[in-house]
Amino acid sequence: MNTLEQYYRIRQAAGVHVHIKPDGIVVIQTCSVLAHGNKLDVGQKNTDLTKLDDLKKYLSAGLPVAFNLSGKGILQKRIEKIDAINLQNFHQILPNANYEDFYVQNFISGEYSFVSLVRKNEADKWLGELKNLEFVPLMLSLGPFAMDSVINQLNIYEQDFQVAGYRIKRNQNVEWIECHTDETLTATFPVKLASEKIDEKLVIPYASAFQLVIGDRIKPVKATVEALDSDLQDKLYANKRKTLSVLGLIVLFAALIVNFLVFTSLNNANAALSVRLSTYQQDTQNLAQLTEHVKAKEQRLTRLGWDGGINKSVLIDKLSLLLPPEVTLEEITVNPMISDKTHSGKSLNFEAGKIKIKGIAEHILPVNEWIARINTQMWVKNVRLEDFIYNNELNSGQFTITINY
User: Fold this and answer.
1) What does the pLDDT read at residue 67?
2) Fewer CB in a 10 Å sphere around the end CB: N or C, the chain?
3) What CATH architecture is 312-404?
């Protein structure tokens, strides 16, 4: 993304997820995001609101909204992959229904299309309420399928998982093959967004907002709503026009300032420049020496495995407390050593922030259980099973786990 394009896009948005239970009770979750260049920050988060009016307490007027609707009134159907749904093929999905009465979402994953439908009058009612509250709805998505764009940001490593009332099954290519709804389903582990814990109820509104802000880089999962698509394009065009106008004013103002400075200070410029140049050269030389000195110190600390004074024995104790009885430890190495041959001989280096564990287990299940427990620790950034080699003669497998902390 070039420097200007980051100002053309939607930089701040809120995901608003409205779930209608079978008895008609409405539950609302909301999560806002703010983009800074290539960085995305999570802002206001609210769960279990009961009416849209509550949003005015937490979200500012005029905020772009990615709206997600799920539950009662939403029809979801898996069919063989179809590239586009139109008037001609709509009867294959919902016979005897009028195509013009529905907003249609076609989420294509592998061999299947997961089609979601909502009556236009039902969706327009919610979108109208958002507008009356002075928010700006720009995108509509249905069901849990917007989550596909953010799963790789979550600590979900299995093909099958459950979260926020949905059970998702995927194939080896992480393509969706089944999606089941059950109000009682919750995640089997604390959900993390990157390294930060997040309420699983916020995954769908976060994914909805993420799609709106990063929509220029991904293909968002959304229903086809011509009015919202038009509003989104108008908003993007307005952002572009505003950015270019501000840039033009900045350039003009800068040119005026430069001309003023040139014509008023030309007589003293040469003398001042000479003094500054001499000072700059001396400062540059001093800075270079200081930089080299600091760099040498940092390299020495890195080679010695310094990682900020973390108590490694405490980390090992915590890992041991989580160990299932079916797993036997053989070796734990904190900041494992790297042998680096140089011209002067052999130097020792260490991988800072890493723990390497070797052990034995008869089955891989207790190893996976241990990994899941380790993942719940706040100090753990990442944990990965490097290998599990089964020995038929010993009737056990030897595994290697690496942990980044």
Assistant:
1) 97
2) N
3) 2-Layer Sandwich (3.30)
